[in-house]
């Protein structure tokens, strides 16, 4: 049994299967939600429930501060839009946990500029963007791992659904930057099991077919339909190999591994 205690903030499309995977590995979980039904579900799973509205509030009347201070790993999988109206909410949240607690934050490769070139973790980012502000807050911590996620695909989530009915599809020559839900989960676990202070990783498949090539294959697989695009420019390519070199992690899916229900 693993004694490490993890607080997971965000129980959505990524957070739910992540919590289940962490539980299967023996981690002790504290899980937050705003939804009363989810809080009931959390408790039924044997996880410690936390009301996000309370944990992110300056008033700790509904939260045992000592319980939060004993957490070794804090994983935040909330979408950036959660902090759009109040970016200081992230700072308030972080202050509830021990300064030495490892923070794993799921950011996005959308933080990079949109130029026709390759981007690795040293590339310039838009520091004035919401993601830029949130990442900067995370960087004030003494122990963090920021995961910049490419476009997410997996069960009940794939961009081909939205492209199917578009009359005009642009940028067919642009490279695709995607990653499967399960590979993101394994990347997060790799960062937990091998702590390394103050690190940033891109999480993106090494294969970058063009939008026209990739989405036409996906459309044929799921809908038996052809999909055409206007050509456009090459666009950016996200390099996600650093995490494979530094952690016990390998991308287990291929970008064209379809077959899951979308």
Describe the structure.
The chain is an alpha/beta fold. It has one domain: Rossmann fold (3-Layer(aba) Sandwich), CATH 3.40.50.720. The chain has 10 helices and 11 strands. Strands 3-2-1-4-5-7-10 form a 7-stranded parallel sheet, with helices on both faces. Strand 4, helix 5 and strand 5 form a beta-alpha-beta unit.
Q: Helices and strands, in N-to-C order?
A: EHEHEHHEHEEHEEHEHEHEH
Q: Helical residue percent? A: 25-40%
Instruction: Quickly count the domains.
Output: 1
Mean pLDDT: 92
Q: What is the CATH homology-level superfamily?
A: NAD(P)-binding Rossmann-like Domain
Assess the beta-strand content as a share of residues.
15-25%
- Number of helical elements: 10
Q: What is the name of the CATH architecture?
A: 3-Layer(aba) Sandwich
Give the neighbour order of strands across the main sheet.
Answer: 3-2-1-4-5-7-10
CATH class: Alpha Beta
Assign an overall shape.
globular
Summed up:
The chain has 262 residues and is of the alpha/beta class. The chain is built from 10 helices and 11 strands.
């Amino acid at each position: 049994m693993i004694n490490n205690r993890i607080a997971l903030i965000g129980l959505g499309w990524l957070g739910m299967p992540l919590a289940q995977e962490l539980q299967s590995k023996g981690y002790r979980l504290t899980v937050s939600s705003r939804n009363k039904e989810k809080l009931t579900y959390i408790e039924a799973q044997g996880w410690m429930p936390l009301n996000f509205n309370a944990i992110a509030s300056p008033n700790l009347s509904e939260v045992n501060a000592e319980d939060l201070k004993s957490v070794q790993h804090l994983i935040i999988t909330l979408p950036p839009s959660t902090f759009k109206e109040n970016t200081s909410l992230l700072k308030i949240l972080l202050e509830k946990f021990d300064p030495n607690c490892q923070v794993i934050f799921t950011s996005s490769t959308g933080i990079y500029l949109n130029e026709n070139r390759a981007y690795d973790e040293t590339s310039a980012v838009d520091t004035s963007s919401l993601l830029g502000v949130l990442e900067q807050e995370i960087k004030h911590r003494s122990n963090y791992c920021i995961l910049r996620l490419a476009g997410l695909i997996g069960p009940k989530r794939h961009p081909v659904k939205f492209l199917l009915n578009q009359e005009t599809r642009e940028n067919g020559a642009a490279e695709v930057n995607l990653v499967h839900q399960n590979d993101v989960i394994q990347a997060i676990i790799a960062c937990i099991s091998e702590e390394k202070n103050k690190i940033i990783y891109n999480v993106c498949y090494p294969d970058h077919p063009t939008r026209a090539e990739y989405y036409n294959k996906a459309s044929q697989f799921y809908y038996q339909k052809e999909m055409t695009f206007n050509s456009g420019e090459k666009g950016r390519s996200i390099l996600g190999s650093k995490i494979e070199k530094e952690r016990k992690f390998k991308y287990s899916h291929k970008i064209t591994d379809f077959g899951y229900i979308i």
